[in-house]
Amino acid sequence: MRKPLIMGNWKMYKTVPEAVRLVKQLKVMLADTVDVEIAVCPPFTALQAVGEVIKGSALKLGAQNLFWEKEGAYTGEISPEMLTDIGVDYCIIGHSERRAYFHETDADVNRKVKAALAAGLGVVMCVGETLEQRRAGLTQRVVEEQVTNGLAGLEVSQADKLVIAYEPVWAIGTGENATGQDAAEVIAMIRRVAAGIVGEEIAAEMRILYGGSVKPGNIKEFMAQPEIDGALVGGASLDASSFAQIVRYN
Ligand code: PEP
Q1: What are phi and psi of 56, to 5 degrees?
Q2: Ligand 1 mean position to 248 CA, how many Å?
């Protein structure tokens, strides 16, 4: 049985006091949630403070990026070990904003995924097609390639901490969302491709999320699809009551 995961990606929003205020509200609002795993991904600067607030609660802590080396002369970078050191549970890797603005390639994503899993972090690897690719009928091909390249050479023994998020780029932050059925079809394909790499057993247990303009008003449509195991939520995770409504979609 795959336990749904609903993760808030706070992107480059929230100062430390703002992040602490938001997570304190969520901690109260979501205290009795047992059927959904919840994670919040504040910016690096707020990870430790948010981690202090959620200590002892069911809320999990996620980062939004990392670098694949353990340590070294890599000015401005953060290693997987530095994240586990402060109690981080998950890391988002290969978000489309990192691919678009920071030129992350599938090969970079692959190195990050492997380094994060080796350090014991849970990974949420993001894949998804652009609007041009979708219009050209390339969705399946592009996403298949991102999954294949992103997971290339993965140690099967580490794959149990792997989560994939299908996030069509045209749906992120735009208010446009895929239909539940469209997303479920791509996610079913992702599971088949992942099974070819990590094996049927692990792929059957792997959570695959949808992300792209998820809101309180559309979460039910996604969660009604048996293939969809949760959501990666951007904009709507910045407000406690909208994120809490999404988590309580039932
Ligand atoms: C995201 O940042 O992963 C995302 C899905 O953003 P939004 O929910 O704002 O579309």
Answers
A1: 85, -5
A2: 18
Q: Which of 124, 170, 214 to mutate to test the pocket of ligand 1 (most atoms within 8 A of CB)?
A: 214
Active site residue 95: yes
Task: Give the tens place of pLDDT for each residue, 135-191.
Answer: 999 999 999 999 999 999 998 998 999 999 999 999 998 888 889 999 999 999 999
Fold (topology level) of 5-247 = TIM Barrel (3.20.20)
Q: Which two tokens stand for residue 28?
A: 């109260």
- Inter-axis angle of helices 240-247 and 16-29, to 10 degrees? 40
Cα–Cα distances in angstroms (integers) from residue 130 to residues 97, 177, 208, in the given order: 12, 13, 19
Domain borders along the chain are 5-247
On whether the CB atoms of residues 41 and 89 are closer than 8 A, the answer is no
Residue 140 Cα to ligand 1 midpoint, Å, equals 21
Length in residues, the chain = 250
By the 8 A CB rule, do 95 and 64 touch? yes
